[in-house]
Amino acid sequence: MSAPSLRRATGDRGAVLVEFALVFPMLAMLLFALLSAGMAWNQNLALAQAARVGGRYAATLPTQNYTSLDDYLDVVAARVVSGGEGSLATSVTGRMICVAYVHPAGTTTLDQTRSRTETGSTVTRSNSSCFTDSQASTDKRVQIVVERQATFETGIWSQSLTLHQQLVFRYEVSSGL
After folding, report:
1. Which of 165, 161, 164, 166 has its CA nearest to residue 37?
2. Burial of 46 (0-12, 13-18, 19+ CB in 10 A)
3. DSSP code of 163?
4. Which of 11, 21, 75, 117 is the most buried (most CB within 10 A)?
5. How far apart are CA 81 and CA 47, in angstroms?
6. Cα-only R_g, the chain
7. Domain boundaries, the chain
8. What is the tens place of the pLDDT at every residue in 75-116?
């Protein structure tokens, strides 16, 4: 006896190719969306790292080493940018960095509330904090806020996102150091 031969029905020719042509665009969009979301998540993690690096540095950096709080805040902002691993470069769209030294009752040159906000390449300074936090009003602290634009794309549509990180560190330098 001979083995039964497997024969395809003549009407099924090319069905797999048609099914693949219908499913492939959806799979490609899903893959593209996952890749785009992963890149946005990575940028958000870089912002969080930049804020942590700058905040920790500022919390342990004596203000007495500088002639003004503006000089102190410039150094801290530079540390935030370098801690961002390129995610806060001046060429990044929608970039904003705010660094503040918050002193509860300071009135002297180095003991007062002062902030530095950099949007794009424009730097503004004020005698206020970056944001309202829930810390005790008697605590010296450092505030860091970083933002940038990111784009989430699927291949058919895209959505612009604002990535935002903010944190507060207690200022740890005492006059005894």
Report:
1. 161
2. buried
3. E
4. 117
5. 9
6. 27
7. 16-170
8. 999 999 999 988 999 889 899 999 999 988 777 777 889 999
